[in-house]
Amino acid sequence: MENKKVIFSGMQPSGSLTLGNYLGALKNWVKLQSEYDCYYCVVDMHAITVPKEPKDLRKNTLEVLANYIAAGLDPKQVTLFIQSHVSAHAELGWVLNCLTYFGELGRMTQFKDKTKRLESSSIPAGLFTYPVLMAADILLYQADLVPVGEDQRQHLEITRDIAQRFNNRYSETFKVPEAFISKDGAKIMSLQDPSSKMSKSDSHENAFIILMDDLDTIRRKLKRAVTDSEGVVRFNDDQPGVKNLINIYSKITDKTTDEIVASYEGKGYAQFKDDLAEVIIGEVRPIQERIDYLLKNKDYLQEIYSYGAEKAEAAARKTLRKVYKKVGFIPK
Ligand code: ATP
Ligand code: LTN
Question: Which is the most buried residue in 108, 118, 140, 328, by most CB within 10 A?
């Protein structure tokens, strides 16, 4: 156990997990769990960087945890916990905030995307400093690797910069983590606008498939997925909608995109979409059964997150203690 490399990652309970979260990240987390010492977190503090109804936050937090377990994470093998249960995240976050520059946060593309249509008077400061809390999440556990989707690469870069800055200013304290992005770099795109990523907080319901969608909803959303007027199943950039659907097909079945294109020669989009719906259903149905079971057994979920918080707390405190000492805070 001691010699295993450490992994940290998290997802926001900003909605229910999508096929994008699953194929882009969660599926990899499951593959990594036996080889690494893994901390997987539900980052509820990140989810309030945009306005969120308390009852929805509570519901989504438990759902995300249930999704993690249902997708195959083993609570005995990995540490599963809820971010707000370990106060060291907020505490280290503050120290790191004082080491991070306004200019570097302003360059974050996720911040720019999320605030594009907002007046500056209504942009929460937490949305701006979001990457600093994310850096605290990762650095507290001295993580070696952080498995995320391609969209998080820039946040990992700033985490590394902050870690190095702290180490240079005070002395070696943090492990400088690396992003761990799967080779095929799956970025699953919106079913309604294939130029933007599939996102659980999209206001357009047909843009995403959540793991908990019922089977008819999955079929319907695929039927409505945006394609083009070509009518030929081909994998190229001029047909981003079809390309995205082929990618999803390929990620689930492990067939190459060439194989998929070849098997749909002479067939139209309708057949392809119907088949893809069944492929997705085959993958998510067993996960859904487990989610249903878990959400009906909230005591079991509570046992898991309480135990997880205890384990996480112990590791996090160790790092925070060192940090407080190095910056010059007087111990109690
Ligand atoms: P939100 O829409 O609320 O910003 P999100 O759906 O983008 O959330 P996060 O919680 O921010 O999800 O991300 C969780 C993980 O899932 C991250 O590692 C992220 O890179 C990955 N991920 C999210 N969406 C996709 C996608 N469409 N394709 C591949 N990976 C994704
Ligand atoms: N910003 C991440 C969620 C996140 C995260 C983390 C991911 C918060 N803290 C720490 C990895 C490690 C996102 O996926 N949008």
Answer: 140
For residues 20 and 185, the answer to whether their CB atoms sit within 8 Å is: no
Domain boundaries along the sequence of the chain = 6-186+298-327, 215-292
pLDDT of 274 reads 96
Phi and psi dihedrals of 260, rounded to 5? Answer: -65, -45
| Distance of alpha carbon 237 from alpha carbon 117, whole angstroms | 28
11 C-alpha to center of ligand 2: Å?
6
Catalytic residues: 114, 197, 200
CA distances to 137, 158, 173, 325 from 170, in Å: 20, 18, 8, 10
Domain 215-292 class, CATH top level: mainly alpha
152 lines ligand 1 (CB under 6 A): yes
- As a whole number, the mean pLDDT across the chain is 95
Q: Which pLDDT score, from 0 to 100, does residue 3 have? A: 84
pTM, 2 dp: 0.95
Q: Is the pLDDT of residue 233 over 80?
A: yes
